[in-house]
Request: fold
Amino acid sequence: MSIPPLDIRQKPARITGIAHIFAAAGYSIGGVRRLWQETAFRHITVALPISIAILALAGARIGDYCILLILFLVLVATEALNTAIECIVDHLAPDWEEFARDAKDLGSLATMCLLGANALFIGSVVFRAVVNG
Reply:
């Protein structure tokens, strides 16, 4: 009985120059496509326009909108890294492993911290609007 050969993929050739910029954009779009499969990311995309509306009702300044956008971009980046960690861990430990639980819990904590930062910021803008009447 012969063993079939392994399907070994070769590492793609390195892309340099201006082509690298286009390739990197393509990789990022691929990342967004993958991240869209995550419920948490879809919730984040729904939360952004709601947050913008809350700031508008609170009479936010242009700087407040900029801070909100920065916080949300950092949240998206953190969620992307959390998802990457989960993908790697799921590959390395298909069964339950303590290190896998710890890695996933720490990634979740990072995301939760950014969610808290976003909520605190929005709350502070609303609080300022209420106090200033």
In short: The longest helix spans residues 98-132. The domain at 38-132 is CATH 1.10.287.3610 (Helix Hairpins). The mean pLDDT is 93.
